[in-house]
Specification:
This is DNA-binding protein. InterPro entries: HTH_17 (IPR041657), SinI_DNA-bd (IPR010093). The protein is built from three helices and three strands; from the N terminus they run βααββα.
Amino acid sequence: MSKNKSQLRLSSIAVAAEYCDVHTVTIRRWIASGRLNAYRVGPRLLKVDLDELDEMLRPIGGGVK
């Protein structure tokens, strides 16, 4: 199910990289590979949805709850 545009938490690539503690090149690589969607705002500016970045997170290890 796709979100409405009013529900997107759009952020610049630089802010998204800081949010995930990765380099901006990594965010661009994820976009190029199709792992992360980008939204074009104007002729050159790209934005990403922070909720999509949250969905990419997955726990590892055997932490006890």
